[in-house]
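Before the break, one more example. Copy the sequence into your notebook; we will annotate it together after we see the structure.
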Amino acid sequence: MATIDGRPAMYGVTLKQLRELMEHRGREGVAKLEDFGGVQDICRKLYTSATEGLSGSENDLEHRRETFGSNTIPPKPPKTFLQLIWEALQDVTLIILEIAALVSLGLSFYQPPDEEEVVHPGDEEGHHGWIEGLAILISVIVVVIVTAFNDYTKERQFRGLQSQIEGEHKFSVIRGGEVKQIFVGDIVVGDICQVKYGDLLPADGVVIQSNDLKVDESSLTGESDHVKKGDKSDPMLLSGTHVMEGSGKMLVTAVGVNSQAGIIFTLLGAAVDEQEAEAKKRKKGEEKAAIENRSTAAAKSEPVEEVVVAKETDDSHKKEKSVLQAKLTKLAIQIGYAGSTIAVLTVVLLVIQFCVQTFIIEGKTWKNSYANQLVKHLIIGVTVLVVAVPEGLPLAVTLSLAYSVKKMMKDNNLVRHLDACETMGNATAICSDKTGTLTTNRMTVVQSYICEKLCKTTPKYSDYPEPVMNLLVQAIAINSAYTSQIMCTEPGELPKQVGNKTECALLGFVQAVGKSYQGIRDAQTEESFTRVYTFNSVRKSMSTVVPRPDGGYRLFTKGASEIVMKKCAFIHGRDGCLEKFTREMQDRLVRTVIEPMACDGLRTISIAYRDFVPGKAEINQVHCDNEPNWDDEENIVNNLTCLCIVGIEDPVRPEVPEAIRKCQRAGITVRMVTGDNINTARSISMKCGIVKPGDDFLIIEGKEFNRRIRDSHGEVQQHLIDKVWPKLRVLARSSPTDKYTLVKGIIDSKISESREVVAVTGDGTNDGPALKKADVGFAMGIAGTDVAKEASDIILTDDNFSSIVKAVMWGRNVYDSIAKFLQFQLTVNVVAVIVAFIGACAVQDSPLKAVQMLWVNLIMDTLASLALATEMPTSDLLLRKPYGRTKPLISRTMMKNILGQGIYQLIVIFTLLFFGDKLLDIESGRGLPDGVPGEHFTIIFNTFVMMTLFNEINARKIHGQRNVFSGIFTNPIFYSIWVATMVSQVLIVQFGGVAFSCKKLTLEQWLWCLFFGVGTLIWGQVVTTVPTRTIPKIFSCA
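Here is what the structure looks like once it is written out:
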């Protein structure tokens, strides 16, 4: 018989049986599990151990993947390059150009029979008529390929980003008796996983052991109630669901496409393929959204239609458009209208002039060859439209965002939603957590109060009564998640804290007094626990019930000191003797111990216990013959005996005060929202610089906050919130609901002139609603739960507040990059369109030919967007206030630059058009037959491109700075593209010939073109000198 690592290769249960098992819920699931012989029997059939897990040998894991599948769901294949080219070809203006070019090409080869005129020797139209049509086609192909290439790289970046987000996801499993963090994709059937509050379950499984485990299955079933999980109630845990409370262990029974979420994915994928044709008629991306929504229907029997509908309704709650998107959409529409109008006028004028000239003045009759002339006029009109419409805008936005997102990775910002990056630049308020974000999240016990002795150093075990210290060490070791551990590292380094940092501080305290917490845990395994009341934001404490060696039960509790103390009736006094813990003593303890600790910025934790005994009970014990009703938490966790109070220090991160100063200088208000008590919160906020001594700001607790913002019926009222939030700086002892209420209140407020843009940090499962509601939600990459990460827009991979400041810088930089590009592009648009239009009126021909305009369009759209969208941010960005939602995208300074440069370029071009032939002593290009390139119009084209190129350098600054060259060498993409464009222009003019309607220029003519080009830089300094306030406000737009 075949064996793998000494065990049989055949499992005692098949993939099909396991899949069927996972389709049952609740009581049905319990019964079905019993049919299989219970969870221990399934462990045996899968050759795994509930306590030791799998051996972890590579052969065994590989065999399991082959038999039961791997824990990955294959993504939808990306679009191919050809598909992207086809999509780029769908652009309406490009289609009109293609058709017109083909018609022009066809007509140039067509010699109608009635055409018997003599061809003039100088008229090269007959020989070269086809070149222009072909050149336009080639230009269109170049534009399409560049667009497709950009989309392709963008899609690849997104996929890379997505896989990075998914790749970051690790999970705790037991292998070879040790707890290990492994990537979710490496989990196999038979693994024993440790699940805890906040986890997103990565596979289907069966509960082995549960401590108060509650799961939110709404993503699969639509039911919003949390489902209690346990071997007696409902043992099935499903992938894609969120653990909302408690902890436990599960045996993995189905992974990847065989898990419940995977089955739905496969169904959805198949349904999408079938409906592909219909889906195209609907909004693009709906089916994609349905697939991407990892969490959807209940069992596989559910119809797929319902799944998609559920997703659609879910999408209606998405955030509104980002600030920049809204402004750009408005601007693109405005430019589109103007461009279309001028394009139509240009065509109409050219056609009327041609008809009047040919048929009325010259009195000729219609010939078929004239159709070619009319097509040429149409091409010029369409080209004007192509130049006028800034199709480079979306490209610039995408490029700038994608570039920023890539760079932000290095600054510890993992961006999940692209527009969050840009929205962050407009942030006016940041609501930040304290622990781990403003502080280091490396906690240590620095003060303790045991047996009426306050100790500000590490106490000695022998200084206190043995029974009390023994109880205290047990209380800390047992009543904390067994995933919290202190790992030994290299000599000289600090020990590594794994798991909950507050618990790690307490475990460190046990080690500091010379005891081992691991020995106690080995003797009292998690399986032996009678009941666990896990920590949550309502309890603010955690309790564990274990059996006593001599019968009965012992309850250990730890939590926020003032909350646990209210439940204490006894305390160990001097020499460990028991005393009644009266209200007076409690108040005195708060005044003399807890408040001074909190004022030092310490987090205070109380540890207590209670005994339930079968025989004679002492004064602080409870007599019970039968097992108490553990569901009656109110009475169980009461009349406790206080063991000690500890003060835990979590120092402020050294870089945070400076980061907060930068925020305040940049016009961003930082507020701290924390669950700690008000004195600790006040102390930390002072150290950070959120509040300064003598400031008239509010520091209040959640209770007081709720009292102020609710009316007599307990309803939250916006006008009451508006009285609180402007001055609020610290909200202490707050619940996640308070955080959500505050964020919503600030966003919905109408009292400031433009709506506030709020960023929020969160790490807990219950922070989900606040993170979703905020304009930008930051989840903690280290301390954050999977639920918080799912709800966020950006993940802070180092949990550090100063990384948020970098996100603000990048956000503002994106906004400025787009503005730079706009300033540059609109100048070119205005000049090219006016030149084409007036040229059509005055010279019956556009001085800039269709191919030339397409080349200019390529420079300004694609290449300039690449060059200007990739500027690096500078610290100057944090010296100004946020733009806000209502400030025009094109400021008055930018409009001054656009108009100023536009006027200069138009004067130069029209001077060259009407007087250039005399000034430069060359043959006039006006009235030359079509298709004959002359020096005159070549100089006009070349000068226009030179002015455009030098104006690109001007466009690098949009706030009226004089030095347009500063930092130019920090952006290699900019100067590489600039030089490449310049070289291409030289080649086009000197060797482009008929294809580009160009004639070779002499050195002197080149110097004139360069002189006019460099003139834009000098003229730029003149424009900068003009005061901005002379420009009427009406000129700022979008």
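The CA atoms of residues 356 and 362 lie 8 Å apart. Residues 115-126, 281-319 have pLDDT under 50 and may be disordered. Try to locate both features in your own notes.
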